[in-house]
Specification:
The structure is a homodimer. Chain A is built from 10 helices and 15 strands. By secondary structure, chain A is α/β, with parallel strands linked by helices. The first copy, chain A, has 2 domains: 154 residues, Quinone Oxidoreductase, Chain A, domain 1, CATH 3.90.180; 150 residues, Rossmann fold (3-Layer(aba) Sandwich), CATH 3.40.50.720. In chain A, the strands form 3 sheets. In chain A, strands 3, 4, 5, 6, 7, 14 and 15 form a 7-stranded mixed beta sheet that branches. Chain A has a 6-stranded parallel beta sheet with strand order 10-9-8-11-12-13, with helices on both faces. In chain A, β14, α10 and β15 form a beta-alpha-beta unit. In chain A, α2 packs across α3. The two termini of chain A are 19 Å apart. In chain A, 51% of the residues are buried. Chains A and B meet through α8 and β13 of A and α8 and β13 of B. β13 of chain A pairs antiparallel with β13 of chain B, so a sheet runs across the interface.
Chain lengths: 334, 334
Amino acid sequence: MKTRQWLLNDHPRGRPLKDSDFRLVETEIADEPAPGRALAQVLWLGFDPAQKGWMENVADYVAPMALGDVMRGSGIVRVVKSNTPRLKEGALYAGLTGWTEWLETDGAGFEPVHPDLPPTAMLSVLGTTGLTAWCGLFKLGEPRPGDTVVVSGAAGATGSTVGQLAKVAGARAIGIAGGPEKCRWLVEEAGYDAAIDYKAEPVRARLKALCPGGIDVVFDNVGGAILNEMLGEIATGARVVICGGISRYETGTMPAGPENYFNLVFRRATMRGFIVLDWASEFPEIRRRLAGLVQDGRLAFRIDEQQGFEQAPATLMRLFSGANRGKQVLKLAD
Amino acid sequence: MKTRQWLLNDHPRGRPLKDSDFRLVETEIADEPAPGRALAQVLWLGFDPAQKGWMENVADYVAPMALGDVMRGSGIVRVVKSNTPRLKEGALYAGLTGWTEWLETDGAGFEPVHPDLPPTAMLSVLGTTGLTAWCGLFKLGEPRPGDTVVVSGAAGATGSTVGQLAKVAGARAIGIAGGPEKCRWLVEEAGYDAAIDYKAEPVRARLKALCPGGIDVVFDNVGGAILNEMLGEIATGARVVICGGISRYETGTMPAGPENYFNLVFRRATMRGFIVLDWASEFPEIRRRLAGLVQDGRLAFRIDEQQGFEQAPATLMRLFSGANRGKQVLKLAD
């Protein structure tokens, strides 16, 4: 049988993504999986800004991507034929599928979807997104009740989870996002105490007003000027969690480094980065807790679902233009 | 009797120091100290880049300095007349004297000089300089045997102490300094394993060559481009200690922030600032250990001694031009 695949066609280094970074091909795949393997159909793909870093090969915590490789990415599959006890026919699993419609896999790294939540939860709140929010916030940010947590890129899939987790932990959550619709959603749906629209409001002045005691935990998904403004308002002993840097991808040039880094001295503060995979051994337990919060109605998530395999590159680009509303996924099949 | 004093005459914000930032006055001081107080003569003043931050009032971890205040600074005094059991007549003490030739004090914050080391040791290796090196390195940097520690501003009073302490702890020490004389001194006298002359060598390439496994501990006294280069070469799990930022003072404009901060993510690394006064309760014990290392010949220090009270402003400026060789002090009297 045949499957379509998106291949890496160029390394988008130091510039935005473009259509010619990807190449659509059709390739042959066996109807009958080899012993110990299964044939699976991809139902959804999930998208993350880190994928651009993988394409650039700057992110050396993962294996390099060569030109001609199938685009790396997560997805949800339904197992159609299985020759391995790891994967049950008819069942749905989440894992690193790559950008393909069909794949043969031994099931390594694939997890069953949650029985009581929509399958796409495994690409968002129970996937790398939710795990990243949990680990970054609780292992590095360490919010205490009454702390003020400020999240940039707050309306993104990770950011909106961070704010809600901060609230669960008894902290105040302030989100920074672009545009009134995102800011309204943060406060009305995602439980943020306040939101700052960086496209319409002076970020520094709003931070001063909203965080009179300073920021105890910064959770940064953005970098650039917004990180710098947040660093300017940290409280003594603040924890600055560097999770992402989407501003690094927006333009052809690297954004300036944060001049206000020296406030780490005056505030005896800590700035840390992390790779969520370092805590992989804890993922089952963290996923169990995240699912519990969703089921208790304490953790909302929204999915931005686009349609059609041929839209994969355009769907990834939505992340960098800020077009997505919630976790970006692409539906390939029912 | 009369004493001369240097007063703060202008806040040197966002520009280098100049002569008119200081004003020399003569003022009256009682021959006989009040009950509970002592009259002391200042023998040496000690100088530190942080003093410019105090003058600017940007360093809010200390009380603000107003125009007309006596310049804040450390010194060594000899007690001439004492009406307090805290201070013995004829004995030498170190403390915050300010820029004055004589002062009356109740002795709060004054410590006796070490009986077996030169008095100026209390302004350098046993003073804030040595305590800063110890606390920054061991409380934040946490070097382990075999780690590679890179120090910027390595020929400065703090930097040269950091490298030697790293060696004592079993780590490799690489120093970055300006000019062949400083670099030679680092390797030949201060026990550094290697030195990089940033004025003559490509820092990034030399770091790559000297630290093939990456930098485990960055101890930064400089900021700007050198901090950025060091961040580009950190090892997984690195600790980046922000101690000072002398490049912030060199020019009228703030140096760019470190673009490579995002390497904290790829390297799961930590960048922290600190204020050494937070560990004041531990100073006696740390000072005891530092003195032991000096007496064992494991910790060298050098003093750059200028002469004459009227030279105080010019002596402070030596720190920012890189003219000083070792801890900058000024001798006022025998």
